[in-house]
Amino acid sequence: MDGLIIDDNRQTADALQQMLEVLDLTARVAYGSSAAMAVLGGLVPGFVCLDINMPGVDGTEVLAYLRREPRLMKVPVIVITSDDQPETRQRVMQGGAQAMLIKPATIDALEGAMKKAGVLI
Q1: Which of 6, 20, 50, 121 maximizes the CB count within 10 A of its CB?
Q2: Running DSSP on this structure, what letter comes out for residue 106?
C-alpha cells in the first residue's frame, strides 16, 4: 500500500520514509504542502503521514482538504509534528486524523500509529 509523506523538512521526510520501509510500507514524499496538493490531484494514497508546521498552507489545512474531498476522505492520516500542544492534538484529532506522533518519532511509535490507523494489522 503506497502512502504519502508530507513534510517540508527533507531530512525528516526521508528518515520517515526509511522507517516505513522497515515496516514493509512504501510511501512517496512530497516536500511541503504545495507539492502534496499537486500529488494528491492524481493519487489516492493508502495513508498519509502529515506534518503540521509548514510554510504557506499548513498541515491542518491539508488535513481539512483530505477530509472534505470525497475520494480522499477515508484515507488514514497520521500527523507527525514537533508541536506538542494539547490544543494542536485536539485540533488534528477532531479534524479527522487517526493518530498524532511527536517528532522525532520512533519506529515503535510509528508502528503503533499505523496499527491504530488500520494501515498495519
Answers
A1: 6
A2: P
Question: Is 72 among the domain residues?
Answer: yes
- 29 in any annotated domain: yes
CA distances for 9 relative to 53, 71, 73, 83, angstroms: 10, 27, 25, 14
| Dist. CA 61–CA 65, nearest whole Å | 6
- Residues 6 or more apart whose CB falls under 8 angstroms from that of 109 comprise 101
**pTM higher than 0.70:** yes
In the block, cell 506538542 appears at 84
Domain count, the chain: 1
Among the ranges given (38-42, 65-69, 97-101), the one the predictor scored with the smallest mean pLDDT:
38-42
76: cell is 488514514
Which residue carries 497520521 as its cell? Answer: 78
Residue 54 lies in a domain: yes
Check whether the bond before 76 is cis (ω within 30° of 0).
no
Residues in the chain: 121
